[in-house]
Structure formats: structure tokens, C-alpha cells
Write a structure and sequence with these properties.
Number of strands: 15
CATH superfamily of the largest domain: Vaccinia Virus protein VP39
CATH class of the largest domain: Alpha Beta
Mean pLDDT: 89
CATH topology of the largest domain: Rossmann fold
Radius of gyration: 24 Å
Shape: globular
Structural class: alpha/beta
Order of helices and strands: EEEEEEHHEHEHEHEHEHEEEEH
CATH architecture of the largest domain: 3-Layer(aba) Sandwich
Distance between the termini: 64 Å
Length: 317
């Protein structure tokens, strides 16, 4: 499959490996159909096939050859919208082994990790491939995404999901079954994204591979993981002060005068942590604020950041 775009490109093929298609819907493509109650289904189009709903069958032949954005009617008289799925719609419905990185977090990672066209990105923890798709699209045809996954079964699912969305294996992407630490030494990369159980184990290897000014971004699910990763980045000594946050998305119901927050929302999914690589051998200035009393008490067993006096023996505190 060609990854070229332009006037001579087939409009039904993904544009420059973006996963975006246009033109008439054809056999083999996936579409998203939505009923009046906003119930959604993803189906793969096939000549002569039917999709059975609780209100009758939908003929695939009624969809094939049409542009997206049409309305088809089931045998029971229910109308359904038909569109190709957007990336954020695809990733929440695709098969999964590991939990997916949801669109609200993937968007934050791409933006706050400043993943740019042409970037050399390493992803540790391919999971089910949702974040991988966002990273591939962000780096574009002149960048690279090197994904690592320790579990082969997860890697197989991630590969299938990525290839399904892009219509093949994007040439800027590689997937390795193994430990990212085994392959980082001696490399130069612009961004490292860690989505794994113990990202603090990779901090030394990440520090050796990131170019000065490069950025590490980690996605963790729990507060103990968050605490240990942040303290490990601090003790490394050559990263800027880590930033940590989470994102909450609250939809709104808008119906005439009934304008209010939705009863459902996408609450906590995970924490994000970013830090930038200092020039090699250079440490950031010491933090001016002091830890809260008891922050590193007897019950704390993680890494401890160096105190100001340890950084500067002549300091009196």
C-alpha cells in the first residue's frame, strides 16, 4: 500500500499513513454505525453481508459505494448514521489485551510531551496500541516511533490494532518484544514515553538516550507509582523538576433550557509525569521550596532527593 499523498494518490488509501481515508466506502473497510440512542457499533463491510441489530438487519450492500455520512435504515425501520471511525473512536472499541491509553490522556501526551513531526520517539509499553497510533500520526512520515512490549501476546494485539487502523504496517514504526532498557544505550532520541508498571527502572537508560532538551513522559495509574517515579527523576540529578497532573473530562448535557453537567464523566484514568533532559553533566538549580514536614518520614521507603546541603557542602541550609 502506498503511503504517498497528492492528486495521484487513491483517495481511499490512508493519507501518508495517517489512517484517514476518503471517497466511497468499500469492502474491507470498517465503519461506525450509530442509532438514535447513540448506541454505536463497528462493522467491517463485506459484499452481501448483513449486520443484525435488535431492530432488524442492516444490509452491507446499502452502505458499499456510498460516501460516509449517510443514513441507512434497518429492516425494523430504525435509522443509523454511517461514518468511518475517527482515531479516538477506534481506540476505545478495538480489541485489547492491556488497558488502553484513553484519548484524553493520549492527547495530553502528544501535546505536553511536544511530540512533533519528524521526532524520534521511543514508547515503552505498547499495550494494545492506542497510544502508538497517536504517536505514529504525530511524528508523521519523516519521524520514527520505536515501541517496546515485554509480553508477546500484548505485542501481537498492538500490532494487529495498529495495522488495522493504518491499513498496513507504517514504515516509520517498529515493534520489539523485549525490554526497552536493552536497546536504549548508544541511541539518541527526542522523546521517551513510558507506559509500564515500573517506569523508574528505566530512568538511567532514558537519561542516556535522550538528547539535551529531550523529554520523558510517563503514564502511571497509582499514587505510589507517581511518587516513586518523581523521586527517581529527582535523584537522577540531570532532569528538570518533574511536572505531574491528571486530566478529567466532564461532558455537558444541552437540551433546550436543560443545560447541565452530564451525569457521567471520564474521571481518573492515570497520572502523567514529564521532565526535560538537562545537558549531560549539568544539574538544575536546587529547588527553593522545602518539602513539607514529614514528607520523608520513617514510613517512606523510596528514593530521596538530595538536600541542598548535600548538593552544596558549603551551604548552611
Amino acid at each position: 500500500m502506498s503511503g504517498e499523498s497528492g492528486d495521484d494518490a487513491n483517495p481511499q488509501e490512508p493519507r501518508a499513513w495517517s489512517g484517514v481515508r476518503s471517497g466511497p466506502l468499500r469492502a474491507g473497510e470498517w465503519v461506525r454505525i450509530t442509532d438514535p440512542k447513540n448506541r454505536r457499533h463497528h462493522i467491517q463491510l463485506e459484499k452481501g453481508a448483513q449486520f443484525f441489530t435488535h431492530r432488524g438487519a442492516i444490509e452491507h450492500d446499502d452502505i458499499l459505494g456510498s460516501p460516509e455520512g449517510i443514513v441507512v435504515t434497518s429492516a425494523g425501520g430504525v435509522e443509523y448514521l454511517v461514518f468511518r471511525p475517527l482515531l479516538h473512536e477506534y481506540v476505545v472499541s478495538m480489541p485489547r489485551g492491556a488497558a488502553v491509553v484513553y484519548p484524553k490522556d493520549a492527547a495530553q501526551i502528544v501535546a505536553m510531551a511536544d511530540v512533533f513531526p519528524g521526532a524520534r520517539v521511543v514508547e515503552a509499553g505498547a499495550g494494545s496500541g492506542s497510544l502508538t497510533c497517536a504517536l505514529i500520526r504525530a511524528v508523521g512520515p519523516h519521524g520514527s516511533v520505536s515501541s517496546y512490549e515485554r509480553r508477546r501476546d500484548f505485542a501481537d494485539i498492538a500490532r494487529a490494532n495498529v495495522e488495522k487502523f493504518f491499513g498496513g504496517s507504517p514504515p516509520m514504526w517498529s515493534l520489539t518484544v523485549g525490554d526497552v532498557q536493552d536497546d536504549l544505550h548508544g541511541r539518541e532520541v527526542d522523546r521517551v514515553v513510558l507506559d509500564m508498571l515500573a517506569p523508574w527502572e528505566c530512568v538511567e537508560a532514558v537519561g542516556s538516550a535522550l538528547v539535551p532538551g529531550g523529554l520523558v513522559c510517563a503514564y502511571v495509574a497509582t499514587t505510589p507509582q507517581l511518587s516513586r517515579l518523581v523521586e527517581t527523576l529527582r535523584t537522577h540529578g540531570e532532569f528538570t523538576e518533574p511536572d505531574a497532573w491528571e486530566t478529567l473530562v466532564r461532558p455537558w448535557h444541552v437540551e433546550g433550557l436543560a443545560v447541565r453537567p452530564s451525569h457521567k464523566m471520564n474521571g481518573h484514568t492515570g497520572f502523567l509525569v514529564t521532565a526535560r533532559r538537562m545537558a549531560h553533566g549539568v544539574r538544575p538549580p536546587g529547588r527553593k521550596r522545602r518539602p513539607a514536614p514529614g514528607a520523608y518520614g520513617a514510613d517512606y521507603a523510596g528514593p530521596r532527593p538530595a538536600t541542598e546541603s548535600e548538593r552544596d557542602p558549603e551551604s548552611t541550609g
